[in-house]
Amino acid sequence: MTSIAGGHGEPNPNSSWLSARGFWLAYLLGLLSVHLIFLSVPFVSIPWAWTATNLLHNAAHLYFLHVIKGAPWLSTENDPSRRWTHWEQIDDGVQMTTTRKFLTAVPIVL
């Protein structure tokens, strides 16, 4: 287990905040805020606002969780987290955790 340079903090703060208390509420409120911004644009119908919210969310989800690789806070070059995507770093790669289930269910429900 590698820690941040200096020896303080989480082993990998790149993904530990996803399991933090209040993350789900903040995530859903952010998603609702984006949807309300789309609804506030004149001449935008409700179905178009939902479609735009879904497309923006899924594009951001794809890019930030599945395209970007690495963990900028880790100090060693041989740490496997440097080669993993953000999705692979969540809960140290353990599958079917509550965080991963939540992040899988939101795009499906949206």
From TrEMBL:
<dbReference type="GO" id="GO:0005789">
    <property type="term" value="C:endoplasmic reticulum membrane"/>
</dbReference>
<keyword id="KW-0472">Membrane</keyword>
<dbReference type="GO" id="GO:2000303">
    <property type="term" value="P:regulation of ceramide biosynthetic process"/>
</dbReference>
<dbReference type="InterPro" id="IPR007203">
    <property type="entry name" value="ORMDL"/>
</dbReference>
<keyword id="KW-0812">Transmembrane</keyword>
<protein>
    <recommendedName>
        <fullName>ORM1-like protein</fullName>
    </recommendedName>
</protein>
<dbReference type="Pfam" id="PF04061">
    <property type="entry name" value="ORMDL"/>
</dbReference>
<keyword id="KW-1133">Transmembrane helix</keyword>
<comment type="similarity">
    <text>Belongs to the ORM family.</text>
</comment>
<feature type="transmembrane region" description="Helical">
    <location>
        <begin position="24"/>
        <end position="50"/>
    </location>
</feature>
